[in-house]
Specification:
By secondary structure, the protein is α+β, with helices and mostly antiparallel strands. Among the domains are: 205 residues, Up-down Bundle (Multidrug efflux transporter AcrB transmembrane fold); 76 residues, Reverse transcriptase/Diguanylate cyclase domain (Alpha-Beta Plaits, 2-Layer Sandwich). Helices cover 63% and strands 7% of the residues. The strands form two sheets. The protein has a four-stranded antiparallel beta sheet with strand order 3-4-2-5. A two-stranded parallel ribbon has the order 1-6. The termini are far apart.
Length: 404
């Protein structure tokens, strides 16, 4: 059985590492396939905009006791009222039939009467709403304006917070990635896009941004330490940041998705189409896609954007030349101080023979059995000669014997 606590601790300390950055081409390929499918769905199927965007008439028949063949019966009633165009019929809340048609202001009363007779209810139980095309166009325009303003503000905030436009570009790329895939899923499965769905889209972009900022903050911390100590490359430091925040990202995503999944279940099985279902569906899809982009897209994209910077190139070259020796020194210190497992041999560089006084075997590996000698000779983390005498450094000198 997997110990998730230990697994998360190993990821944070670096004992285990998942190569998110090093395998970025694989993640890019997966995202390219998903984006391709999304765009194909939009081009071939189009988007199923709700009546709020395209305009039309909506009728709701309340208290229906017999919903058998409700679609055919609703279409017959609409046809009897002489309303042209397509008809969309759904069940809402178990006993309410929602009928959406083309705008039919003149035939509204005739349609209400026909629907009441068809479903055997009182005409007062049939409500009607007329939405003009101009109002739907206004809603679409305002939704697009809101999205553009959101993306501009996100870019400015990221650039100011992280002090580099490349982090802002990587974060913005992840946001667009989430938006395209989410819209593509709506197109492929024919989900209806309503104003509630648009609110959900903006909400998931904010969630994705939040997760990306948390990861980027750790990336900035680790890479600053890498530039200072020169002990790991920029890509390795960034990859360590993703591993350190991985468990947190997964836990946050699962906690967020569980209540949304419960709302979706209730919406699909009991409530039917409506604001609650539209909003929860957009959130469920977007949060899952946003978690993916924060882990697999944002940070690898950032590393790729900064890979040609002179400071990053110099750091990578320095680590390539001196990294093995430095790693050996760090490992030797870890064994001597008890931080590393004592049963694992740690190689020692040629210029660090006998680090911390720990003895070496014929292969140049530290012998854990000599750790006591190392601690007595100079203590952990203090280089001494391999043949240094154990015990206090300053032994009292014996007084010379007096000559008789």
């Amino acid at each position: 059985m997997i110990n998730f606590a230990q697994f998360g601790n190993d990821l944070y300390t670096g004992r285990r590492s998942i190569p998110f950055v090093q395998r970025r081409k694989l993640w890019y390929s997966v995202s390219a396939v998903m984006i391709g499918l999304a765009l194909a769905g939009v081009l071939l199927n189009g988007l199923n905009f709700g009546i709020e965007f395209r305009g039309g008439s909506e009728f709701r028949v309340l208290g229906v006791t017999n919903t058998q063949d409700y679609e055919a019966r609703a279409e017959g009633a609409v046809s009897e009222a002489s309303i042209p165009g397509s008809v969309t019929t759904t069940i809402v809340g178990g006993n309410t039939v929602r009928v959406q048609t083309e705008a039919a202001q003149a035939q509204t009363e005739a349609a209400r009467t026909a629907l009441a007779e068809t479903f055997d209810v009182d005409p007062a139980s049939v409500s009607s709403t007329l939405i003009g095309p101009s109002w739907g166009a206004s809603v679409s325009e305002q939704a697009i304006q809101g999205l553009v303003v959101f993306l501009i503000l996100v870019t400015i905030v990221l650039a100011l917070y992280f002090r580099t436009w490349k982090m802002a570009l990587a974060g913005l790329t992840a946001l667009l990635h989430d938006l395209v895939i989410t819209v593509g899923i709506y197109s492929l499965f024919g989900f209806e896009i309503t104003p509630s769905s648009m609110i959900g889209f903006l909400t998931i972009l904010g969630y994705s941004l939040y997760d990306t900022v948390v990861v980027f903050d750790k990336v900035r911390e680790n890479t600053a330490e890498a530039f200072r100590t020169k002990r790991m490359t920029y890509a390795d430091a960034a990859n360590l940041a993703v591993n350190q925040t991985l468990v947190r990202s997964i836990n946050t995503t699962v906690v967020a998705l569980l209540p949304i999944a419960a709302i979706l279940f209730v919406g699909f099985t009991m409530l039917g189409p409506g604001t609650l279902l539209d909003l929860s569906l957009a959130l469920f899809i977007g949060i899952g896609v946003g978690a993916y982009s924060s882990i697999f897209i944002a940070t690898p994209m950032l590393v790729q954007l900064r890979s040609k910077e002179p400071a990053v190139v110099d750091l990578d070259r320095y680590v390539a030349r001196h990294g093995a020796k430095q790693a050996a020194r760090d490992a030797a210190r870890g064994v001597a101080s008890g931080e590393a497992p004592a049963d694992v041999p740690v190689p020692v560089g040629a210029d660090w023979a006998g680090a911390n006084g720990v003895g070496e075997d014929s292969t140049g590996a530290l012998r854990p059995t000599d750790l006591g000698t190392a601690a007595a000779a100079g203590g952990p983390g203090r280089p001494v000669h391999k043949y240094a005498q154990a015990g206090p450094r300053n032994q009292p000198k014996r007084a010379p014997k007096s000559k008789r």
